[in-house]
Each structure stands twice: as structure tokens, then as C-alpha cells.
Amino acid sequence: MIITVAHSKGGVGKSTLAWNLANALLQENKKIKIADIDFQQTCYFLNLLAENRFEVLQPQTGAELLEIISNIQDDEHLIIDTGGFDIDINRLAIQKANKVLVPLSESPMDIIGFETFKAILSESNIQINVVLNNVFHSQKDFSSITSILDFNYMKLLDTKIIQRKIYKTVLANGGSVFESNNSKAKKEIKALLNELLKC
Ligand SMILES: Nc1ncnc2c1ncn2[C@@H]1O[C@H](COP(=O)(O)OP(=O)(O)OP(=O)(O)O)[C@@H](O)[C@H]1O
Ligand SMILES: [Mg+2]
User: Fold this and answer.
1) Strands, E, within 55-118: which ranges?
2) Residues of the chain with pLDDT > 90: what percent?
3) What is the mean pLDDT of residues 54-64?
4) CB 60 less than 6 A from any atom of ligand 1
5) What's the domain count of the chain?
6) What pLDDT, in 10s, does the model give residues 94-119?
7) Among 157, 167, 171, 187, which is best to mutate for testing ligand 1, by the most ligand atoms less than 8 A from CB?
8) Domain range holding 146?
9) End-to-end alpha-carbon separation of the chain, Å?
10) What does the alpha-carbon distance between residue 33 and residue 124 come to, in Å, rounded to a whole number?
11) How many other β-carbons are positioned within 10 Å of the β-carbon of residue 179?
12) 38 ligand 1 Cβ < 6 A
């Protein structure tokens, strides 16, 4: 199972979700690899802080990424964390994924950024799973998001990731929400994983 977390805009929560999803899979004793294809190497450095909890691969070329993908076994999960820009290796990671997860928030900047990303996505025939991230607790109306999604090839996941301080604080020592006692955050990451795997 290849899960690519992608958005051509930076700062939308790709690495946060990739890292926490990998940790959610670990909770279920799954075999996991992470491919960090962002030059910022966020997952690579988080994994160092976490004392090499995962095997984090850093393919530099499309050919290297394809080789990693071709070696993923049926019982393995590969989480690919992409950079917040448009380059060939990111497009490849999207095309080769079994599941593409796109974090999106309601901020006007993210919505503008999503229009650019949509132009890239619409060139391929890939089904995209959009997850709302950085959602305010009290928010009920998501029409500004639903109005920009193209439901021909996009699905808005029911799970919403709330804006929570814990998503930042646990990273300081390479942790995930699963090392915290924040049951709500743990629950929403588990729900995201389950929803993503079954859709
Ligand atoms: N649900 C959330 N609640 C609180 N903070 C969050 C949440 N999601 C992400 N953040 C914070 O937002 C910032 C950007 O997140 P992150 O680095 O995961 O984005 P990114 O899409 O991977 O960015 P880049 O493209 O630069 O790699 C980080 O400081 C992260 O801790
Ligand atoms: Mg990142």
C-alpha cells in the first residue's frame, strides 16, 4: 500500500499527517517505510529524533522512487511525504500511489494554492482524498472548501483534523500524538487512517 501525502503548497500539514499516519500504522504493528522526497527532510529528521523508529528512504530521482515502490511487499505500507512545490518526483509519487491524501485548510492562502494544485491533478486520472486540516473546534460550515473541490476525482474525507497544539509539541522529540495523552488527537488520526484505507 502506497500512501502519498501531497500538496504543491507548503505548510498545509503534509509532514504532520505523514508522520502521525506512519505512527498510527505502527500502533497496529504494520510494516512501514517512509519515503521522504522533500529536500527539507522533515520526516528524515523527525525519525532521527525518534531514534530511527522507521526506515526512512530518501530517493533523489524518479528512478530511485520507482525502485523503492516496486520493492514494497503486499503486507508493507510506504508513506511518501512530498515537498510543497511542483516537481517531477512529486508528480510520480502521486501517480504511483494507491491513496493520495491532500491536506487542506480554509485559509484563503490555502484555497488559492489549491487552485494551482488542481490544475496539476486534473492532468492525471488519480482519485484524490482531501482532508481538512487545522480546523477550528467550533467550525461547522465548510462550504468554502466544498465549493472548490471537483467531486469527479476528489473525495472529502469525513475525518477532520482539528487545530491542536499537541501536533506541534510532540514533534520536539520526534514523537507523534500516540506518545501523548491527547485521546482526541489519537482518535482523529486513527479515524483518518481507517477512512483512507477503506475508501
Ligand atoms: N492540525 C494541526 N494543528 C496544529 N498545528 C498543525 C496542524 N497541522 C499542521 N500544523 C503545524 O503547521 C506547520 C506546517 O505543518 P507541516 O510542516 O506538516 O506542513 P507541510 O505541508 O509538510 O509543509 P512543507 O511543505 O513546508 O513541508 C507545522 O508547524 C505544524 O506543526
Ligand atoms: Mg513537509
Assistant:
1) 55-57, 76-81, 99-104
2) 92
3) 98
4) no
5) 1
6) 999 999 999 999 899 999 999 999 98
7) 167
8) 2-198
9) 13
10) 25
11) 14
12) yes
Say whether pLDDT at 50 is over 90. Answer: yes
- Phi-psi category of 35—alpha, beta or left, where left has phi over 0 and alpha has psi -120 to 50? beta
Reading phi first (left if > 0) and then psi (alpha if -120 to 50, else beta), residue 172 is in: alpha
- What distances in angstroms separate CA 5 from CA 27, 35, 83, 194, one per listed residue? 19, 11, 9, 15
Ligand nearest to the CA of 102: 1
- How far apart (Å, rounded) are the C-alpha atoms in residues 81 and 38? 7
Ion ligand 2, residue ranges at CB < 5 A = 14-15, 42
Residue 124: predicted pLDDT: 78
pLDDT score for 62: 98
**What's the CATH code of the domain at 185?**
3.40.50.300
Q: Which distant-in-sequence residues (6+ apart) come within 8 Å of 25 by Cβ?
A: 32, 77, 79, 193
The atom number, within ligand 1, closest to the CA of 103 reads 21
Asked whether 187 lines ligand 1 (CB < 6 A), one says no
| pTM of structure | 0.97
